[in-house]
Write a structure and sequence with these properties.
Shape: globular
Radius of gyration: 18 Å
Order of helices and strands: EEHEEEEEEEEEE
Largest sheet: 5 strands, mixed
Number of strands: 12
CATH architecture of the largest domain: Sandwich
Number of helices: 1
CATH topology of the largest domain: Jelly Rolls
Helix content: 10-25%
């Protein structure tokens, strides 16, 4: 009988609760395994926004397809590890599914510590990837067709 599980989104192989080294959730090893499972599950999160409104995800992919320019909001990430109720290390990708100028606003200075507004140029596929750390969203890589400003 196998005591491992292949996580569907990342392909990572982690021990299951029946593995000899798992420790019933009380060891560092068990906590790491649980965290890997939580992170892997977050990668599969998906939200499609077809109208202006709030982005509900803190991790996963948001697909903007409102059919016209629309304003969205994104909550400030919670500082701290996911195991303690925080969002540190969580990644969020936001992608335009149609050619409209979208905006996503946040609390002041919560993107890279200096900006609060993300504005999409009107083109399909424009996108940005964010990672949460210490209550701030940080840009990962180079945004495509998305500008950052402090309003």
């Amino acid at each position: 009988m196998s005591h491992t599980l292949v996580l569907p989104n990342s392909g990572a192989v982690v021990p299951t609760t029946g593995a000899p080294d798992y420790g019933g959730g009380a060891t560092d090893f068990a906590l790491v395994c649980l965290a890997l499972g939580a992170i892997d599950g977050a990668r599969g999160n998906f939200q499609k926004l077809t109208a202006a409104g709030a982005i509900a995800l803190q991790a996963g992919t948001v697909f903007l397809k409102a059919g016209s320019a629309a304003a969205m909001t994104l909550a400030t990430p919670v500082s701290g590890s996911p195991g303690s109720g925080g969002n540190d290390g969580m990644r969020l990708s936001i992608v335009a599914g149609d050619a409209f100028a979208y905006t996503v606003t946040l609390t002041a200075n919560k993107v890279d510590g200096a900006d609060d507004t993300l504005t999409w140029a009107a083109a399909v596929g424009n996108n940005i990837e964010l990672v949460a750390a210490g209550g701030i969203w940080y840009i990962v890589g180079t945004p495509r067709g998305v500008t950052l400003t402090e309003v």
